[in-house]
Amino acid sequence: MDHSRDRKRGWRRQRLEPPEPSPGAGSRHRSRLARLGTALRPGLAVKRWLVLILASGLVAGYGFALLIHQAFSWLGWPNIPGFLRAAPPWISGLLLLSLGLLVLLWSAWQWSRTMTAALLAQDQPMPDSRAVLRALLRRYQRRTGPRVVAIGGGTGMPNLLRGLRHYTDNITAVVTVADDGGSSGRLRQQMGVLPPGDFRNNIAALSDAEGLMTQLLQYRFASGDGLGGHNFGNIFITTMAAITGSFEQGIAESSRVLAVRGRILPSTLENVILCAEVRVNRNGQEEWRYVRGESRIPESGGQIQRVHLEPQDARAYPETIKAILNADLIVAGPGSFFTSLMPNLLVPAIQQAIRASRAVRLFVCNVATQPGETDGFSVSDHMRHLRLHAGDAFNVALANHRFTPPQPPPPTLEWVALPEEDEPLDYQLFTADLIDEERPWRHDPRKLAAQIMAIYQRLRQEDDG
Known about the structure:
It is a single chain. The chain is α/β, with parallel strands linked by helices. It has a domain at 141-464: Rossmann fold, CATH 3.40.50. It is 46% helix and 13% strand. It has helices spanning 3-9, 32-39, 47-75, 82-86, 89-119, 129-143, 156-164, 182-191, 197-206, 210-217, 232-244, 247-257, 318-325, 337-345, 348-356, 379-390, 445-464; strands spanning 13-15, 148-152, 171-175, 263-266, 273-282, 285-292, 303-310, 329-332, 360-364, 396-400, 428-432. The strands form two sheets. Strands 1-11-10-9-8-2-3-4 form an eight-stranded parallel β-sheet, with helices on both faces. The longest helix has 31 residues, at 89-119. The protein is elongated, with a radius of gyration of 29 Å. Residues 3-9 and 22-30 have low confidence and may be disordered.
């Protein structure tokens, strides 16, 4: 994206309205002719098969006609009804051909309906042509959707992916490997593998069988000397890595087995450790602490000033760099700001690739602050620390502007405040209603993805203009 154009345009704060329903869902009252035109639009992989069916039918029919002619020559021609015998041969042939094709098409249609009903569960209704057409359109739109790279980890990333998967199949999730707590930390220490927890969450979010996969992959063994406290998904990914010979190949094969739409890639394959410089106020006196280990940072009891990786020159995973450079849209966040997002952006080659990319680059700010990490942070505080750690990798932000949900957030959380109306901004800010009605301290996946795609379209149009 051309950042000089951004500077000429000037930074501004824009309030977004709920976007219009996505095109392609179809209207209940759309005419049959319009539906036929839609079904024949380029890219749906319908016309090519129709043409192939017709061409192969003509070839097979011609061959069949030759065989029939030869057979009748040997056996003698049957008696032809009088009305066909009286007509010219080409009319008789056309009538017989039309009758045969009509019976053939009707039989094929009834056969397809019977097979579809047999393959579907008995309690599911028979899909009509409009439902099939809408499914084809959604599939086409996702297959040709923008190339999106989502960077983060924790619980925020799966929420984002659940929304984005309705718009595109071309998703690459870049996940942190700095996690050292819980089941992931134990496997990392005992087995020497990269932490599988965030990969597990994102695989579940992108799986076609998300509901069942989420329950399976998130299942936690409650007891047992070896399995107690472990998630099934962590064990599954670790086992797959051992079978395939590498962690990245294990993730790829796990994604294939679980029918994942998109890719989940690590930011680095190195055994990195997240460290933080924390300022602590004790009895009115400020002191600085150096905290080593991702899981220990939120427990430090202070205000995080800066984080970095050990080693600081960790090499990026090559496929991740390739995905970033080829992306149309790069989204950072939401999720734990310092412990899930930053470990990815602290890999030097990741930062460089983001700056070099021509993609729309968007930072999604959390709805609520996170205890031990971003206490008291506003949107501008998030952007200030993002600039401190990642430079000008992201100059556009999306934040929530609805602070009156049906139920308030827990007492330990507070809303991430928006800038004052007269506050000068060195970044472009979009705001919208992004909250989940049941858990207002989190993003609603559908709302978030819809606004992200609306911003992407707007900035692309402005950049092209």
